[in-house]
Amino acid sequence: MVSTDPGDPEPFRLDDRDLCPSVGVEEEFVLVDPATGAPFPGNTAVAQVGKTLGIDLQLELSTCQIETATPPCTSTSELRTELLRTRRLAAAAATTAGARLLATGVPPLGPIPRSITDVPRYRRLAEHYRQLGDQVICGCHVHVGIPDRDTAAAVCNHLRPWLPALLALAANSPITDGRDTGYASWRHMLWSRWPSAGPPPHLRSAAHYDATVTEMLDHETILDTAMLYWDVRLSAHLPTIEIRVADVPATADDAVLIAALIRALVVTAHTAVHQVRTVTPVDPHRLRAAYWRAARDGLDGHGIDPVTGHLVPAPDLILRLLDHIRPALEHTGDYQQAHQALHTVLARGNGATQQRRTLTTGTPHDLIDMIGRTTLAET
After folding, report:
1. Residue 14: its pLDDT value, please?
2. H or E segment at 28?
3. Which GO terms describe its molecular function (predicted)?
4. What pTM does this model have?
5. From CA 69, how far away is CA 77, in angstroms rounded?
6. Is residue 166 a contact partner of residue 258, using CB atoms and an 8 Å limit?
7. How far is C-alpha 99 from the chain's CA centre?
8. 242 forms bridges with which residues in the sheet?
């Protein structure tokens, strides 16, 4: 999907200076009533219990959401340990507070509670964005270390074509209010309504990035930089780039896979930037169409190649991504593990596939139980 200068005879290779950057993951979870499966509006109580267990759980917009965060990790094995730890402690805090923790992009059962977490920022957000705030959506945010903001802005351009493939792979939100929406990632469809959501524009520099953000602040499409909801954004206070396109993955191992692919994609893009390899800007309308198709089909249908515009079986797009970033995965020591994990997901299906399979063959209670068990599964 990335086009390079046809006159450049050099094969693609990683530069010696490309080290293994740190990676950290934030995960958002739904809290549900363990008896009914309906959203449980008690994130404040869960966070208070979390403090006694030694975990800092962040409050989200809705009172039935909670967020965890790993520290920066240098290896995927370290990241896996941290993800299993944070999920386990968050689930324990939820249980103690009378709730159950689910790794799913939207609440599967019950009406969405119109209950905003009572903190000044969220009250301001609800007032400004009005009914857009009446939603519960849970994503996965992967932070990768890049110390140079101009390089980070250029890296964004190289990531844009691959964002729909990542969305399709991680899709984990097909069911809401007990019904199949027809979309593998209903979270994405809800999220795309926000004025600052979606892929970033093709960026000329960090200064262009900052000027665009300033304009959005002036227009009040965002009220602060934390409300910049692009699927790739530069951190306002850390030397990292943040990729936010994925639903919260069904399992910790799925989250490790997504993080490993994203880090390798960033490393690959970083190398391309330093080798002055250009990337053709993807037409915004085509990229939007590719997003929509990825959200609808997930892994079980077709995706749109954002460069050619051709329909391609979704697994083929994912395998193209794997081939594209293989040198970086080998560089970070993650290729064999990522290859095996990816083929496991392609064989059994992602979170969306598993949710649909369970609801088709079982009851809504079976669905909640499956998601709860999968949230804490160690494979």
Report:
1. 52
2. strand 23-32
3. ATP binding; glutamate-cysteine ligase activity
4. 0.93
5. 16
6. yes
7. 24
8. 143, 233
Give me the pLDDT at residue 7, please: 32
CA gap 75, 131 in Å, rounded: 41
Task: Report d(CA 88, CA 324) in Å as an integer.
Answer: 34
Report yes or no: 355 and 174 within 8 Å, Cβ to Cβ. Answer: yes
Rounded to whole angstroms, the Cα distance separating 288 from 349 reads 24
Residue numbers in the chain where pLDDT is lower than 70: 1-19
3-class SS letters over 38-96? CECCCHHHHHHHHHHHCCCCEECCECCEEEEECCCECCHHHHHHHHHHHHHHHHHHHHH
Contact yes or no for 149/279 (Cβ under 8 A): no
Strands 311-313 and 58-59: unpaired
| Identity of the residue numbered 146 | I
How many angstroms from the chain centroid is the CA of residue 247?
5
C-alpha to C-alpha distance for 370 and 75, rounded to whole angstroms: 29
The length of the chain is: 379
Please tell me the predicted confidence (pLDDT) of residue 241.
95
- Bin 333: left if φ > 0, else alpha if -120 < ψ < 50, else beta: left
Question: Tokens representing 49?
Answer: 């219990």
In terms of C-beta density within 10 A (0-12 exposed, 13-18 middle, 19 or more buried), how is residue 320 classed? middle
* 128 contacts 194 by C-beta, under 8 angstroms: no
- Alpha-carbon distance of 145 to 33, in angstroms, equals 38
The tokens 């795309």 sit on which residue?
Answer: 192
SS3 annotation, 165-207: HHHHHHCCECEECCEECCCCEHHHHHHCCCCCCECCCCCCCHH
Helix (H) or strand (E) holding 100: strand 100-102
Torsion of CA 367, 371, 372, 375, to 10 degrees: 170
Q: Would you give the distance in Å from CA 144 to the centre of its chain? A: 13
Q: Cβ atoms within 10 A of the Cβ of 205, count?
A: 12
Distance separating alpha carbons of residues 50 and 42, to the nearest angstrom: 13
CATH hierarchy code of domain 23-371? 3.30.590.20
Handedness of CA 330, 156, 121, 40 (dihedral sign): negative
Go through 335-350 and write b for each residue having 16 or more CB atoms within 10 A of its CB, e for each that does not. bebbeebbeebeeebb
